[in-house]
Design the sequence.
């Protein structure tokens, strides 16, 4: 009995070399050891791996010597019985052994072939890629596409989807998006101002149309009452601004090309600038038109204005020019240091504020009655209103009467005073007081007296008495005349003329008006200046002894606003030195949206009934019915 | 005919300079100086040009900077296409790379000034952040390109001269064949250990293994160590086949070590591009979203 073993090796050209050998004996061993009938130089094969025995029936029995298995027709086994007529394929490590019967000799033939390389390194390696990171990291192209698509979906497609979803809500005052995340919020360039904070993620409250710049209509959807045009005639507005030149013209052209029209609300009221209050309109936006406006808009009544420090017209305070009955007539007059205003009173600020005269002495005698102990102070008479912005009118009873007493009689410890502000009442009270001073009535005028017979004497007496009563120079009339004339109580402070009615004994007290706001077009807040002394601005008060002196400061000069306020650009500082300069652009005093009271007041002090000062902010949440 | 024949351009007559001038020092730092001047000029404009508004991006200078920045980003991205055509001269690839590097650095100034230092959780800041990430990875790339090649060369040289990548594989194959032959007489257990070393792909290992150069699952080292451990208490015999296998495994380990250092340096040379390139495309996407969003909610 013998076996035919064919060892097949490969040439480098791929050609096969067959080395046949015959193994004598009944048993054929397979293993790594060279003594085996089939020698497999393979480290995965045991030195004596398996043995092959032919049974009496002609079958082949193959069994492992140790515990290491081998493969028969792809199945891992340790024992196998094969029919040589059918043949089989064995696998030991990296070697394949095909079993067949040799056609020529009739011997059992074992064809051995190495099918796996000796080592992994011996296999083909692509030198251009094995030394690179290829296969270890996601490819650059792949991740580039992935990242790009992810970004485009999250930050472009998703926001546009949000926009389209809520598009029907645009321009609806009474509807807005639900309070949740909306993808187009990722487009926000910064937080909204305090006033618009509650619009939150409702981008379409303002950005109503895609690729259309925010329109005034969007603003006016909510700002129904508190916004108005700067001037009604838009063409004048454009004329005032004039045609831009140079860089501005280029900017205008580019903006127009990109569908960004000029003159919208948002040109001045810029948003997404931070979470604080909306910043004040910048000076530039005012100065663009108002600087040199007379040249472009020749019929304007407004003076040119730009930076407050260098290019602002003199102030024009509203002063009382006369009286129409009890109502004052106002007129704007250009401020000069000598400007006068007749409010009907006589008053000497200088005397009253003196620290050395009789008035000061009176104050010293009434310690605790006034703010200071050595003389009067401004606030003894001038009381601020509830906001601190302006001053309440001076009231005679509160501020003057302590010294300028109107008392004329004392009953016990009680003083009787004349009625202030009512000349007729004064005259009546005095007449009543002196009524007891009529001429003595002759005794014979009473029916009970003895008399000369006949009527002549009686008639004469009656006539004499009647004449005496008629022409008796009573003390009442003297007192009335005294009160209304030079040296009298009224005359001290009021201008009194003749020509009144009988009721006021022929006297007329000129009506008095107090001006509570001189600067109507600009906004001045005393509260903002309460750290400064009154006399810092009202410089002439201490020396003025005429009530007609207008003690309100102007733009320049001693105590004028420019003493501290240097304008928005500080250009003023180039020519003069200002101690504690205050940056003051247009919006500090001038506001675009003025109501009847003042441009702006703290919310708590705002009169709720004076128009609507804030927008309809509390719009209901989506979903709402849309028509 | 007295005509002067035009000088023929041939590859052989090209002048060669002895010293190498890299893209960083190219043309006496022309692009570096240009970028520095540009950055300083824009900074001066930013500081001294009076502009309305708080939002810098929506001023004329802001839009100008934004346009320059966006176009610059697209141009810088073009290096990826340009680098596949290597040409000499003024517009050589080296000049282009030099411009790419220095103008790319300048982009930090342009982009940041365009932002007006207003940052938030939005697509605009995302684009800015991605831009900085790309530039930072680029700076890292420059640093690696400036330092790694020297280490790469040093690793390839030994007493017998330089070894190429191809030779590294050949050396391993040769060692593997020798180990295979030497291990034939070994007992099954030892043979299996040695076989594991042969079966392992020398290029196997994750990205992390490559970058750190640490391969804890190295079968060759394991086989060598195990064989020595098994042999430690056995009596010494002459012509022990294990001696030869051990010596060969040690040589293979050394060869593998050198190849892995090579792989490590090469990985560092390449890895930054796996950030630089994909993030560039993310940046272009974010930039597109940024531009569209500005005009969409105009």
Sequence:
């Amino acid at each position: 009995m013998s076996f035919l073993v064919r060892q097949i090796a490969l040439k480098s050209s791929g050609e096969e070399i067959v080395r046949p050998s015959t193994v004598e004996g009944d048993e054929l061993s397979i293993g790594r050891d060279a003594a085996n009938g089939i020698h497999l130089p393979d480290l995965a094969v045991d030195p004596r791996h398996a043995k092959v025995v032919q049974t009496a029936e002609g079958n082949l029995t193959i069994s492992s010597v140790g515990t290491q298995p081998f493969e028969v027709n792809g199945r891992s086994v340790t024992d196998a019985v094969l029919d040589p007529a059918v043949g089989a394929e064995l696998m030991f490590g990296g070697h394949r052994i095909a079993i067949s019967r040799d056609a020529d000799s009739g011997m059992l033939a074992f064809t051995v072939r190495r099918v796996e390389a000796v080592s992994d390194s011996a296999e083909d390696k692509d030198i251009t890629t094995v030394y690179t990171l290829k296969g270890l990291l996601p490819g650059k192209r792949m991740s580039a596409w992935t990242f790009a698509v992810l970004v485009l979906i999250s930050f472009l497609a998703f926001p546009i989807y949000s926009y389209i979803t809520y598009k029907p809500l645009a321009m609806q005052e009474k509807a807005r998006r639900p309070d949740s995340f909306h993808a187009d919020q990722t487009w926000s360039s910064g937080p909204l101002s305090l006033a618009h904070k509650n619009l939150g993620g409702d981008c379409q409250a303002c950005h109503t149309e895609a690729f259309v710049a925010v329109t005034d209509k969007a603003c006016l959807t909510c700002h129904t009452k508190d916004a108005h045009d700067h001037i009604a005639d838009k063409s004048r507005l454009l004329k005032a601004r004039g045609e831009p030149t140079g860089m501005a013209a280029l900017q205008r052209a580019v903006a127009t090309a990109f569908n960004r029209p000029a003159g919208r609300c948002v040109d001045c009221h810029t948003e997404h600038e931070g979470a604080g209050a909306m910043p004040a309109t910048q000076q530039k936006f005012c100065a663009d038109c108002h600087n040199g406006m007379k040249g472009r808009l020749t019929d304007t009544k407004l003076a040119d204005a730009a930076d407050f420090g260098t290019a602002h017209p003199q102030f024009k305070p509203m002063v009382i020019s006369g009286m129409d009955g009890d109502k004052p007539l106002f007129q704007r007059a250009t401020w000069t240091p000598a400007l006068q205003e007749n409010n009907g009173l006589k008053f000497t600020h200088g005397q009253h504020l003196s620290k050395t005269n009789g008035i000061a002495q009176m104050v010293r005698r009434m310690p605790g009655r006034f703010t200071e102990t050595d003389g009067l102070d401004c606030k003894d008479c001038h009381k601020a209103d509830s906001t601190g912005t302006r001053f309440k009118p001076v009231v005679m009873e509160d501020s003057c009467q302590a010294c300028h007493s109107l008392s004329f009689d004392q009953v016990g410890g009680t003083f009787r005073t004349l009625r202030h502000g009512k000349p007729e009442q004064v005259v009546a009270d005095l007449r009543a007081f002196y009524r007891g001073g009529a001429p003595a009535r002759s005794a014979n005028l009473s029916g009970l007296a003895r008399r000369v017979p006949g009527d002549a004497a009686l008639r004469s007496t009656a006539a004499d008495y009647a004449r005496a009563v008629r022409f008796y120079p009573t003390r009442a009339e003297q007192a009335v005349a005294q009160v209304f004339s030079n040296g009298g109580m009224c005359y001290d402070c009021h201008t009194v003329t003749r020509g009144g009615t009988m009721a006021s004994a022929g006297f007329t007290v000129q009506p008095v008006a107090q001006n509570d706001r001189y600067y109507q077009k600009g906004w001045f807040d005393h509260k903002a200046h309460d750290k400064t002394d009154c006399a810092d601005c009202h410089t002439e008060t201490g020396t003025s002894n005429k009530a007609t002196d207008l003690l309100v400061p102007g733009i320049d000069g001693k105590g004028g606003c420019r003493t501290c306020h240097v304008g928005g650009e500080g250009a003023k500082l180039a020519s003069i030195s200002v101690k504690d300069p205050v940056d003051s652009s247009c919006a500090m005093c001038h506001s675009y949206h003025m109501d009847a009271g003042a441009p702006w007041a703290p919310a708590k002090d705002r009169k709720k009934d004076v128009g609507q000062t804030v927008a309809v902010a509390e719009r209901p949440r989506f979903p709402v019915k849309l028509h | 005919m007295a005509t002067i024949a035009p000088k023929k351009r041939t590859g052989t007559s090209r002048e060669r300079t002895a010293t190498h001038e890299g893209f960083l020092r190219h043309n006496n730092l022309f692009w570096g100086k240009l970028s520095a001047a540009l950055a300083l000029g824009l900074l001066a404009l930013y500081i001294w040009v009076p502009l309305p508004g708080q939002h810098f991006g929506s001023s004329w200078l802001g839009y100008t900077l934004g346009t320059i920045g966006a176009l610059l980003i697209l141009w810088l991205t073009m290096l990826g296409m340009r680098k596949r055509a290597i040409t000499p001269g003024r517009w050589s690839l080296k000049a282009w790379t030099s411009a790419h590097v220095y103008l790319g650095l300048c982009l930090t100034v342009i982009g940041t000034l365009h932002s007006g230092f207003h940052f938030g959780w939005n697509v605009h800041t995302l684009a800015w952040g991605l831009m900085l990430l790309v530039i930072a990875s680029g700076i890292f790339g420059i640093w690696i390109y400036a330092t790694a090649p020297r280490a790469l060369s040093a690793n390839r040289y030994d007493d017998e001269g330089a070894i190429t990548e191809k030779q590294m594989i050949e050396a391993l194959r040769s060692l593997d064949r020798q180990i295979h032959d030497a291990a034939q007489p070994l007992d099954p257990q030892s043979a299996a250990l040695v076989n594991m070393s042969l079966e392992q792909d020398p290029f196997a290992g994750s990205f992390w293994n490559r970058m750190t150069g640490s391969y804890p699952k190295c079968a060759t080292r394991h086989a060598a160590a195990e064989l020595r451990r098994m042999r430690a208490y056995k009596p010494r015999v002459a012509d022990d086949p294990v001696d030869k296998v051990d010596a060969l495994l040690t040589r293979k380990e050394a060869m593998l070590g050198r190849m892995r250092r090579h792989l490590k340096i090469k990985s560092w040379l390449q890895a930054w591009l796996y950030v630089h390139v994909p993030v560039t495309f993310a940046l272009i996407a974010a930039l597109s979203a940024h531009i569209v969003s500005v005009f969409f909610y105009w």
Observations:
- Confidence is low (pLDDT under 50) at residues 599-627 of chain A.
